[in-house]
Amino acid sequence: MTVQENQAEELLHRFRQGDVRALARALTLVESGHPVGQELLKRLRGQAQAKVVGITGSPGAGKSTLTDRLILEARKRGERVGVLAVDPSSPFTGGAILGDRIRMMRHHRDPGVYIRSLASRGALGGLAGATVAALALLEAFGFDRIFVETVGVGQSEVDIARVADTTLLVLTPAAGDAVQAFKAGVMEIADLFAVNKFDLPGGERIIQELKSALELSPPRPGGWRPPIFPTVAATGEGVEALFEGLEAHHRHLLEHGLLETHRLERARFEVESVIQEWGRRKTQSAGELVARVARGELSPEEAALALLDPDQPR
Known about the structure:
Layout: H1 3-16, H2 20-32, H3 35-44, E1 51-57, H4 63-76, E2 81-87, H5 99-102, E3 113-119, H6 131-140, E4 145-149, H7 159-163, E5 166-171, H8 178-183, E6 192-195, H9 203-215, E7 228-230, H10 239-255, H11 259-284, H12 287-294, H13 300-308
Parallel strand pairs: 1-4, 1-5, 2-3, 2-4, 5-6, 6-7
């Protein structure tokens, strides 16, 4: 048995014993693409399923505070909760800025809650490439519900719908016209809406705009119609009703046999993310090939094929 296999076996044993430090180590290995992390993923993937909720919305909408309140609701029901907070990357270190964890500090002593920040590293969808892999580890560790909170970077937030079973879009009265969000395509991915900071002026207006916009959108799979919940995360107002809405959507997925479709799409997204990361690394070290594209000597397609098959004549 190789050293890596020994490391994987030892870590796997501790992981299955419920050692939180083993979970943290496994997440680090997976996020860095280490072979031991990949081996752990193969052995642990698919052993359990959690209720996965994606929380997205523009920066400043109160996603982190709302997530904090939803954690409390889940804990009241006896659920073990995992949180993946995909933070903006530091432009200097590439690491996560950890802003979301600061707002959830009340849970740091609760053994039934585990919060992990992942650096987006510039991922266009606001999701790190390792997010789905980390999600699989949290499921295998036995969490009942996992919240995935994204950076909040506009239209490319649609990636969260490919990862989560239920997608919650958080809007605020102060964020502008809800119809503009609809035009951007962000609203089309939401299974539920939360109008947070509802105590600010314009709350009722944005709800009416949402209702009007949703009337124009096609029904979701199984005939689901996204409900709208007014919330004030700072005080907890409306959060219990929102949590019940999340539960209702999960029941809908079960009743219509849609969960398996979600899981397959999640795996497809993960494979695509690996390919994209592979392509990014390849092009960074292919200076001459890129220069030939810039000079018009090669088309981008020819350059990409050359990266895929270096033995191909050019």
